[in-house]
Design goal:
Order of helices and strands: EEEEEEEEEEE
Mean pLDDT: 93
Number of domains: 1
Low-confidence stretches: none
Largest sheet: 4 strands, antiparallel
Number of strands: 11
CATH architecture: Beta Barrel
Length: 114
Amino acid sequence: MNFNVENNTITISGNMVTFENNITKVIEINDLLIVLLNNPNSNRNIDQPDNNIYALNINSDIVWRIDSIINKRAKYDNMYMDGGLLVVIDFIGIHSKIDVIEKTIISRKGYTFS
């Protein structure tokens, strides 16, 4: 998939999507671009955007936002691929492994609240 990132804007096949915060990482998986956002004006976790991971398709449509899969308000620090699944890491260190097509959590590890 052809895409270009500049600050808070991603262009996919000529279509632009602009977010309120900067794009720090993009992962392509199964015809989706998974986008991680952050606030470039602060290094403080509290100032980072909530639910700051989006999936976009080739038409630049937002297919899902992370809170539609992980039903909690959280701020995400990083993401990576592991065996065809997306792993997202929130600021308190919980690693959630996600099937991006089925929109399901496969596993979670790290500190959790009961």
